[in-house]
Write a structure and sequence with these properties.
Blueprint (H helix, E strand, L loop, with lengths): L1 E4 L2 E4 L4 E7 L8 E7 L6 E7 L4 E3 L7 E6 L4 E6 L8 E11 L2 E6 L3 E6 L1
Parallel strand pairs: 2-11
Antiparallel strand pairs: 1-3, 3-8, 4-5, 4-9, 5-6, 7-8, 9-10, 9-11
Amino acid sequence: QLQASGGGSVQAGGSLRLSCAASGDIFSFNGMDWYRQAPGKQRELVARIIKTGGTNYADFVKGRFTISRDDVNNTMYLQMNNLKPEDTAVHYCVGWIAQNLVLSDTWGQGTLVTVSS
């Protein structure tokens, strides 16, 4: 199971850090993602961290957000700086395993981020 937390309300330019705590060993996942879904919009990938530590970011968060992982505490983070109103969304953490061309994923519950102008 994955448990996301850390959402809240901030003003534009502010920062938040989201956490995603795993009940087991997060290193069992091939990778972990943060997704978000704004009202009336499709869910979109925000950032990804793979087992080797490599990271990828959506263009709209590059330079502002940082994804990281604490293997000792089995927790993934998303540090969000310089937040913009368009970052307002429910954010979800996901752990996934890709094996033999089959993808299995585990989703945490969402945590709401609200950014006011």
